[in-house]
Amino acid sequence: MALPISVDRLLHGDVVESTRIELKGGFNPNPIMHSICAFANDIDNIGGGYVVVGVDEQDGRPVFPPRGIDGPAIDATLQQLHNLCHLIEPLYQPIVEPVQVQGAWIIVIWVPGGYGRPYKVPKDVQAKDKSNKRYYIRKFSSTVIASPDEEKELFYISSSIPFDDQPNLAACVEDLSRPLMREHLREVGSDLYAQSEGMDTVDIARDMQLVSGPPEGLRPRNVGILMFSERIESYFRYARIEVVDLPDPTGDGMTEQVFRGPIQHQLTSALSFIGGHVIQRRTFKHDNTPVAEVVANYPYAAVEELLSNAVYHRSYQIAEPITVRITPEAMEITSFPGLDRSITQERIDAFDLRCDRYRNRRVGDFLKELGLSEGRNTGFPKALAALDANGSARPTFRMDKNRGFLTVRLEVHPAFAPQLRALSQKEAEYRDRVAEALASGPLSLSELSRSLGYKAIPKRLTTALDRMVAEGQVARVATGGARSKLALVAKT
Asked: Does domain 7-160 have CATH number 1.20.120?
């Protein structure tokens, strides 16, 4: 990878502060590796730095002409440097480029701040025992061992940057779309929209805080690529929404719609499709009241909140799409990974999904500005309220034991439920087992699953319960506030 700046301007201090440049006349492994580690730790978030080998220093300035490195020794030096970088824990590899300056060969090592930080390296990289590793940081123009308090700060800054706010080192600022950024500013009514008329892409991106890094190594943040780039899947594979309609379990008549592009466009397009092609409404008139009752197969407000949550909380590091699977019995929204482990199973059963940790805080902020997501953990309660008002069952959740995925299942409103076919003997026997487990009293879905000997909630159980609820054999009852449990319906 070539250096993003002019080496001549680098050495003369035109584009990079002198505190971010370490000049070395020769290849001395220990101080060079310590400085690489310090720049990678980037404790002040200034964009890392450069180590230049083959240039002497005097009073903080480079000495010209450079001392240089013998041509035949360059390959051996690069190989040695590559091997030494494997001593950095966790693994970190800087960008290294041999360059000729005033007739002499030098080696420029570009060390951007790393996102696996904090990093440590042996105090003596040439010693046989390399277990004596230290965290190094930069203080002004010097590389020093981090104090215990500075070590704590390194761990803090490494864990406090959500993924979407981190720079995407594989992308460049040109991947950001000026029209998309201005479109967003216009839609949210920002004063910056009028000002941006005469601004270039970089200036708009800076003001929207979509880029980070030093001027010579500016990179778009992940949120910028996700929301303001036309090339999103070049950097995040399968970052899309797939809506699959399965009117028949055999797959006959299946249709699939794939929504690509910036994630806010994916979301609005998918919701528009669901609202226009999936959501149905029926009106019922009752003899005892002049007011007609209107119900939907799925309340749109609930679908909107749940799909928005999937876009907001999914991991864009996992190459799997968000899928919306629609059958005559239910709609299932699947995203990766599952709910945060801080949300216990008891809280899931009680529909208490509040979480203080966010994977994509900036994505959430932008979606809230567009009115596509709710703040302060109010989105899921809003979905529950919409389901309750429609007379729909509350959602069920399915995850594997490692919480690698989350499927939120919405059952179709009973008024739209398909005619049930006759039960096979095996299905009837299985439903008898379910009824026997519920005979002792109401159970949550997870409690019922465990009582039947399952470690996770199987599809077979949710399918059986769908039919038992639709036929009036089982009902969902609220106990202890928002907690919903399954109970047998007494025969009359």
From this structure: no
